[in-house]
Amino acid sequence: MYSQIDANKRKTRILIAIFLSFVVGVGVFFNVYMDYGYSAVVIALVISLGMSWFSYYHGDKVALKSSRAKEIQKNDNPYVYRMVENLCITAGMPMPKVHIIDSPALNAFATGRDPEHASIALTTGIINALENEELEGVIAHELSHIKNYDIRVMTIVIVLVGTIALMSDMFFRMSFFGGSSNRENKNPIFIVIGIALLILSPIVAELIKLAVSRKREYLADASGSLLTRYPEGLARALEKIAQSPAKLQTASKATAHLFISNPFKGKFAGAFSTHPPIQDRIAKLRGM
Question: Which pTM was predicted?
């Protein structure tokens, strides 16, 4: 478990370092070869930060409301509430707000910018379908997302994605009005390479974002297993989730990455999936 946790944290740091280098590389191209200066990079970064600010502080409320999650107290569902409470005591973290989504789908998610401002949501389907140890594994996984500050990590990544997208958009808009005359004196090979980079950069940025998201899922699996000391519980839960045909109708593309499993049941599978393959996750859990 500790090896899995260390490996996933290390890979996340490497991916973010690559991402930052990528943003700097695009910025250098803007400055050196297109003579647009670093102001374009600064403008794109500021706009992306502004757009992400709302998501960071209010995104949890939007995700809960759009998923039709209803907050509960201990008397509403003592079984679920006490399970969350006991795991929080074990993890040494504050109790998040507990929500339930009225849906037969087997899914759950956690949201919030830090442990003091967090919520966890479970569908009625997953509560009814899973055994005690399996549901405990799911809740531990979601609490690990909160404890590992995954929402903060993903906010940083989303800012970088937004910066790249805005810079690419600026490049194409500026190209219509013509760039600096000094551009004609630059090596055409480098200009071609730079233009190709700007065209492909939004796709590359999205792939890096998804790679980070997947690593955080593996990290939450390992961290949750360390919390319960029982990886098999989460492994069995993931098997049941994978076998369930029910879809979460209230999920959207904007909130899909929050859930323990892709709520679209493979619609966005493959390279552009927000989640690693469930069978890979199960294999890693059973290898701990």
Answer: 0.83
